[in-house]
Amino acid sequence: MHENHRKRMKERFLREGIAHFEPHNVLELLLFYAIPQKDTNELAHTLINRFGSLTGVFEASYAELMEVDGVKEHTATLIKLIPELAQRYISESASVQGQFLPTLEQIGEYFKAKYIGATKEIVYLLLMDNKYKVIDCVKIHEGSVNSSAITMRKLIETALEHKASTAVLAHNHPAGLPIPSPDDIFTTNETARAFSLLGINFPAHILVAGNKYVNILK
Hints:
Elements: H1 2-16, H2 23-31, H3 41-51, H4 54-59, H5 62-66, H6 73-93, H7 104-114, E1 122-128, E2 134-142, H8 152-161, E3 166-172, H9 182-198, E4 201-209, E5 212-215
Parallel strand pairs: 3-4
Antiparallel strand pairs: 1-2, 1-3, 4-5
């Protein structure tokens, strides 16, 4: 009976995808691959009740997951793998090298997709030629945009190395709102000033939070 249930769940997924699965069913199916000899339905419910949602489960820390009765090392590792894997997949599939992003809307939508699944602040520098053809999108740093690791020298060297005529800075607020902090605004103004001296167009500093984004540069 247990094996038949797993077989039916897998067949349903292969037939329909997970669009119509309840959140606990999605998690139950995933847990099959960490817990091969036990019903995972109850644990799926427990995890969602503990962390509030399927997203909450994936965003929970490894230590928090390990505190849940029934969660062992394999289970916690598999759960933490999912958002990292999703981010890697989306980042690679959303590669825009050689494509054109001539409008702020297109640039904003690109970064919205790029930050899906990100649980840390990540700073990117999008580099384009004078026709807004993408040369590369370089990860500058993981951490706050106003970190000492984000220096004007690093941004300038990256832009010059790629022979970019246009550069767009971007970072995210993983658990916040798309509202720039005073440090975000300071960094934006300093970057705009530095690129202006080099003749590099700097049309935007994109801040992404969830499914929203703003251009800090005014």
